Backbone:
C-alpha cells in the first residue's frame, strides 16, 4: 500500500478499456470500509458509467479531458437524507440540518473517496479528483437527482491509465508538519520553503505559459481568482441552504 501511495500521480488520459464490474465493486468496498462519523456513513457514492449520463456531467466538470476519457466516474456526496429518513421512521427527531453536518458529512465523503482512489490505484487504475464538483454542485444535483440532504463533495475519474506523468513536486516536509505546536513562518522560511519549487523547470514553464510574474500570481490571477472564488462560494452556500444544511 505504501508503494501505491508513494507512486500516486493524477491520471487524466485513459484507455478505452472499461473497468471490470468485480473491480468496481472492490473499489467501492474499500470506500465503504473507511472510517466514518459515528458509524453513520453520512455519504453516498454515485457510480456513472452510462455514456449519456457522462455527457451530462462533462460540461459541469468544464469539459475536462479526464471526464471525457474515463470509463468510470464516481461522485462522492455528503448525505444525511438516508439517515434523517431512518431517524424519522423510528420517531427520533433528526438534528442534522445544520452546517456542522454538511462539514462532517463532507469529511466522511472525502475519506471514502480517498479509500476508493487508493484501491483503484493498487489495482493498476488511474484516478483524478475533480474540484469542479464544488463549482457546479447545484447542476450536478439535478443531473444525479440528489434529494434534499445530499450534496456532491468530490468526484473521481477512474480508468486504465494511458499516460505515465512524472510525480509532481511536494514542498519540503517542514512546510506542512509541525511538532507539538504550530510554528509560524518567517519571511526567510517562506522563501526557503518555496525556493526549490519556484526554481524547477516545470514551474518556470507554467509561469511563462501564463505570462505571470511568479507562480503565486498564477494562482491568484489565473487559476483561483478572487472573483471566481466569491462567485463559487456564494453558489455553494446556496446549495448548502437549499439542500437543508442551514437551518439555524
Ligand atoms: C480536491 C481536489 C480537486 C482537484 N481538482 C482537479 C481538477 O478539477 N482537475 C484536475 O485536472 N486535477 C484536479 N485535482 C488534482 C490535483 O491537481 C493534483 O492532485 C495535484 O496537482 C498534485 O498532483 P498529483 O495528484 O499528480 O500528485 C484535484 C485534486 C484534489 C485533491
Residues:
Amino acid at each position: 500500500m505504501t508503494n501505491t501511495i508513494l507512486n500516486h500521480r493524477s491520471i487524466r488520459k485513459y484507455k478505452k478499456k472499461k473497468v471490470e464490474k468485480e473491480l468496481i465493486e472492490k473499489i467501492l468496498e474499500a470506500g465503504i470500509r473507511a472510517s466514518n462519523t459515528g458509524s453513520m456513513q453520512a455519504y453516498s457514492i454515485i457510480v456513472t458509467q452510462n455514456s449519456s449520463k457522462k455527457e451530462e456531467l462533462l460540461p459541469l466538470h468544464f469539459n475536462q479531458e479526464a471526464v471525457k476519457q474515463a470509463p468510470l466516474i464516481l461522485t462522492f456526496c455528503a448525505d444525511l437524507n438516508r439517515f434523517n429518513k431512518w431517524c424519522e421512521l423510528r420517531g427520533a427527531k433528526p438534528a442534522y440540518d445544520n452546517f456542522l453536518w454538511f462539514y462532517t458529512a463532507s469529511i466522511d465523503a472525502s475519506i471514502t473517496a480517498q479509500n476508493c482512489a487508493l484501491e483503484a490505484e493498487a489495482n493498476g487504475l488511474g484516478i483524478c479528483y475533480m474540484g469542479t464538483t464544488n463549482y457546479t454542485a447545484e447542476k450536478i444535483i439535478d443531473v444525479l437527482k440528489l434529494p434534499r440532504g445530499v450534496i456532491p463533495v468530490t468526484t473521481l475519474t477512474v480508468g486504465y491509465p494511458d499516460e505515465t506523468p512524472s510525480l509532481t513536486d511536494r514542498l519540503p516536509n517542514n512546510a506542512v508538519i509541525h511538532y507539538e505546536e504550530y510554528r509560524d513562518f518567517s519571511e526567510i522560511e517562506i522563501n526557503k520553503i518555496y525556493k526549490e519549487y519556484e526554481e524547477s523547470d516545470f514551474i518556470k514553464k507554467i509561469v511563462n505559459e501564463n505570462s505571470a510574474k511568479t507562480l503565486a500570481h498564477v494562482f491568484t490571477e489565473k487559476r483561483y481568482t478572487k472573483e471566481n472564488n466569491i462567485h463559487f462560494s456564494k453558489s455553494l452556500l446556496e446549495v448548502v441552504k437549499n439542500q437543508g444544511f442551514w437551518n439555524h
